[in-house]
Amino acid sequence: MTAGAATSEQEINVAGPDLTGAELTGGLNGWSTSASAGAGVEEMVLLDGPLGIVSKAMDERDTSLIMPSGTALGATWNPELVSEVGQVIGQQGVERGVSAILGPNLNMPRSPLTGRGFEMFSEDPFLTGVLGAAWVDGVQSQGVGSCTKHVVANDTETERRRMNSRVDEVTLRETYLRPFETAVRSANPWMLMMAYNRVNGTHCSQNAELISVLKDEWNYDGVVVSDWYGVDDTVAAANAGLDLEMPGPATYLGARFGEAVAAGDVAPRRLRDAVERVTRLADRTGRRSGGTATAPAQLRSQEEQRAILRKAASESFVLLENKGNVLPLDMSGIKTLAVVGPNADKPCFQGGTFATVRPEGEVVTPLEAIREAAGPGVEVLYEPGAAPSSALSLTDLGSAAPDGTPGVLLEVLAAGDAENVLYSEVRKASAFVWFGPVPGLGAGVPGRARITAHFDLPETTRWTLGAGGTGVSSLRVDGSEVLVVPPPAPDDVMGVVARADTQEVALDLPAGNVQVVIDMAFQPGRVQAITAVATPAQVRDPLTAAVEIAARADAVVIVIGDEQGSSRESADRTTAALDPADDRLVNAVAEVATETIVVVNASRAVILPWADKVKAVLMAWFPGQEFGRALASVLTGNAAPSGRLPVSFPRRDEDIPGWGTGLDSELTLDYAASEPMGYRHFQTTHRQPRYAFGYGLGYTTFELSDAVASVGSSFRRETASDGVSGLYVRATISNTGRFHGRDVLQAYAKAPGEMDFRLVGFAAVSVNAGDTAEAEIALDALGFRRWNSSGSGWTVPSGDWEVRVSRSASDEGILCRIAL
Ligand code: BGC
User: Fold this and answer.
1) In which band, very low, low, confident or very high, does the pLDDT at 219 lie, cut at 50, 70 and 90?
2) Which of 115, 150, 408, 810 is most buried, with most CB under 10 Å away?
């Protein structure tokens, strides 16, 4: 049956149904829920997440600590540490008056091309579920809710609002719903966000079958909220079981929920269910009079918070190659160290989403941290070696407001041609988004937004200028109009905003003071945005200078990777490769230098065609704002890399699950083309990944010598939906190298008659050089279930299960058997 849907049940009340608290089911504004005096509930602030706390006003002056991205946390394989990171973001939320943080993202990177892959933990449902639950636990221990998102099959950004994920029930249950199930069962997030997309034809926010899985099967007691603007039908959403429409002002739920109940289209108990759940959230977060909030478990100083982020960053690094033990760097043998690559000086911390976080406090770049760690005895040279591949903000190019203050002048004007300026401020950004009221103007009225920037150019320079936004934008240089950009298509306004789309014009800017103005006239809308960017033409080839310093250095550290715009909300990638300029840089440096170390600052599975030509490759993901110092400590051996890949790295695009398939003419994506995904795709198609899921080196070596499966005294096999608990594998691992190190032992299981193994457990062991340790891996009870498509339920296949203990998904490891 469906969650709370109208049924034939008689609910007769002569005074009419009780509509108390209906307003609680609709948002108040962009980030707040509505209050209800009747229910004694105050407004609650819900803010993005998950990489840090975003600014409610989307204002670059509101800062917060940037956490390691989901994939980086996935690479730690360390639930305790992920929980500590959750505590840090929870505390940041408490300090900013937030009731729930919109994260974590427990979707699965079905393909490495998914635009938001950087937010996702891993390609394995068990690992994602365990780490996601740890993050939720950490956040909620601080008295702040987690809004775990996006239920479900939300791993395609192309047409994300309209596309349909066609997924069979087995795949949905065993893979895509699994992380959410684990998070609900073991950490109970106070909110769950329904995804934009359709699943098997119905939008997730209005999908009664899906919401019934959460509420009826998993007994979920929290709030089920829509993704922002993800509802389009009052009765369908209310009957399906949705509790809250965000953002506000409410269009479909709120008062309309009450009206639908009064009209008899929705059962009164459905409204009571929604009101009760929102009220429970208010209780949990201390936003109801008389309620009891959870007191923060632990408040840390900023230094302590940063120390956790630094530890998480360094534990997330995965060492993929280390030929001749070039790492850790022996600084005593290095007189000149060349650092090359754009990301050394301009690291990338996050992908492009509305959830852009502005770093708080000091940010030390990898280049600065390497300089600091190398000390005065080592000459550190730097060249970027490649130009940025996406356009830059005007402020990054040294813009000034008309009064000479660094930044741009942002103004809001009344609609029309007159100079009626309602708001004006010098800002340090050149892209602005307003959900709801526009400063000085308010909401629901037409108006104009204008950015004015001045540049002092030493000579005539060719630039490409870009402009865009939610209205008609006119771009003027020194008073002459050079570009007019039309407004977005009505059904893609959010896409244009999320992607910060611009149109461009290339032109020669004269020497001296140049004025650039973007003036955008907009109609009333739920969101307004204006974007101005620029790319200066390269005057010389950056590669040559980088190769020159690499050739004369004793060692070269190359830091390359993504930019914020390379992975983004509302747009998928077309290749898993890095920017071609990055590959060219590594190839050119490897020709002239032997001691080359490549650090990859990209938070997804990437193709590394030059990996055999360089000495070391260190995957650094988007590791948060402590990147610089964490990297320097790993490069110099103060910390050892111990991360393991949470995603499989393909050799080429053609090896990606579902390569070559996409949305059909009805915007349906058939999951059959990419399943099983992740490492199971490599197993079942007999392809070799370049680097396997679970793989990673360290500064020492390990040898696995023994593994036995055992049935513990807590063994239980009662209901199939709970799986089988009390199963363990014990393994012996020896540190055969020269340093203390941490290894991650992994257990993969295969049911009788199946083709491939799936992760069912892992354990990290720290062992001193020369020592041997015993590791016990508790196996995942739910991993022994299979969804029985014909009978619509879980079963535990009986017979001989094979359990393989290994150090990656491709490693043969040691095989044990368990009879069930
Ligand atoms: C995203 C969500 C996010 C919400 C609020 C949506 O576009 O899909 O992940 O939490 O916006 O910013």
Assistant:
1) very high
2) 408
